Amino acid sequence: MQLGFLGFLGRQFTKQAPVVKTDLTGQTVLVLGANTGIGFEATKHFASMNPQRLILACRSQSRGQAAIDKLKAHTGYSKAELWLVDLANFDSVKQFADKFEREGGRLDILVENAAIAADHYEGTKDGWEISLQVNDLSTPFVALLLLPAMIRTAEQYSTFPRLVIVASEVHYWVKIEKQVYENPDILKTLGSSEYCTNKVMQSRYMLTKLLTVFFVRALNARLPPSTAVIIDMVNPGFCHSELMRDAKGVAGFMFWLFKRIVAFTAEEGSRQLVYAAVGGQPDKLRGEYITGGHVEEVADFVLSPEGVKIQNQLWDEVVDILAKVDPRVTSIVDKHLSA
């Protein structure tokens, strides 16, 4: 499938369905990137469903606590927990996973919403371009490290936990260049300062969301069908958020104006996250791309022979990179996933 600009606009002016509701009594919900935008609006919806635990994973103590206070004021829910994690720092992700092993218990819903959009190269202390690390290395890192908890939850409580990763329709509008995917180290190439020219960085966010699609499909393909964990990805649509808050100049003004005209509210976008987490028939959502409350085909490039090859190579690269950061990744992949 391909998505043109007119098709995109048509979706943006389509009325969004009401939020899906269910009873989350006794369950644990964890939302990454929960202090603002669609992540915060999703936590408000989850809070209204009476979860036993609702964990807001945020990078900032002050902004996270402000979100906790705001959530209580808006919903009356008083059991929300603030956990800190910086996805631009692998050590922080490891500490977050360690904390969940000690204190997390069951995990019924994990929504990975945190992402950044960078328009120029910025390296992390781990040696990666920051948006690539946050969106396409640390997001898989969290998913893999918390997967055993979701599998245990399914076995102990006879439930269908869901791992939801926020993707985007912008993945239709970008491809990986042939000279890059024919390289034995795709991610190292994409994350190098030499490759990340100003021109390349203009489409970096779209590329990171394409990589998200590849990861979700690769992970789902390796999860045995008998495992009662549902992995899916969701497009919230173009929403009011802080994603492009650093955009400046003419480009920043044009983005602001376009957003004022066509963007969904953050609450409207959050309904898609909630649908991916609690809506639909679980078995029909495995590995699927969800938009507008229904499953839709991903980009033709993803489904092409080149895309299939890239998907498998990226999987191997992600696992190799993360296993060097934390040996638990290797044991989790070997124990819970097929080759």
Automatic annotation (TrEMBL):
What the entry lists under InterPro entries is as follows: NAD(P)-bd_dom_sf, SDR_fam
Q: List, in alphabetical order, the Gene Ontology terms for molecular function in this entry.
A: oxidoreductase activity
Q: Which UniProt keywords apply?
A: Oxidoreductase
Q: What Pfam families does the entry give?
A: adh_short
PANTHER family listed in its UniProt record: PHOSPHATIDYLINOSITOL-GLYCAN BIOSYNTHESIS CLASS F PROTEIN, PHOSPHATIDYLINOSITOL-GLYCAN BIOSYNTHESIS CLASS F PROTEIN-RELATED
What is the protein named? WW domain-containing oxidoreductase
